[in-house]
Amino acid sequence: MPPGTGDVQLTICQDLELSGAISVTTPSKLAAADAAKGIEMFTSLGVPTLAIVENMSYFDVSIPFRCPWTLWSLTK
User: Fold this and answer.
1) Is 53 exposed, middle or buried (0-12, 13-18, 19+ CB in 10 A)?
2) What is the pLDDT of residue 56?
3) Residue 3 contacts by C-beta under 8 Å, 6 or more apart in sequence?
4) What gap in Å lies between CA 61 and CA 68, rounded to an integer?
5) 64 falls in which pLDDT band (50, 70, 90)?
6) Which of 13, 46, 56, 75 has its CA at 20 to 30 Å from residue 6's CA atom?
7) CB-based contacts of 22: which residues, under 8 Å, 6+ apart?
8) Structure confidence at residue 72 (pLDDT)
9) Of 51, 48, 70, nearest to 59 (Cα)?
10) Which residues contact 7 (CB under 8 A, 6 or more apart)?
11) Residue-wise over 9-44: b if at least 16 C-beta within 10 A, else e?
12) Can you list the pairs that 22-30 forms with residues at least 24 positions away whose Cβ atoms lie under 8 Å?
């Protein structure tokens, strides 16, 4: 779902029986605050948080076109 605690999230939580939520965030203060709001909303609606994933927590720009979290590389 898109970030936040808007109508989409509320409707899904109210219309579907969810067994849990996984929150995905990035290493920025704004994203972490938004994820915390989402977790609070899910908790208040009785949906437990199963995991919190920090996406893009590591990226080495000194190696062009290489993604350190995978086994492949696009280097020429």
Assistant:
1) exposed
2) 76
3) 31, 34, 35, 38
4) 10
5) low
6) 56
7) 49, 50, 51, 52, 53
8) 47
9) 70
10) none
11) beeebeeeeeeebebebeeeeebeebbeebbebbee
12) 22/49, 22/50, 22/51, 22/52, 22/53, 23/49, 23/51, 23/52, 23/53, 24/52, 24/53, 24/54, 24/55, 25/52, 25/53, 25/54, 25/55, 26/54, 26/55, 26/56, 26/57, 27/54, 27/56, 27/57
62 residue type, one letter = S
Dig out the tokens for 3 from the structure. Answer: 């970030």
**Tens digit of pLDDT for each residue in 3-46?**
666 788 888 888 988 899 898 888 888 888 888 888 998 899 89
One-letter amino acid at 40 equals E
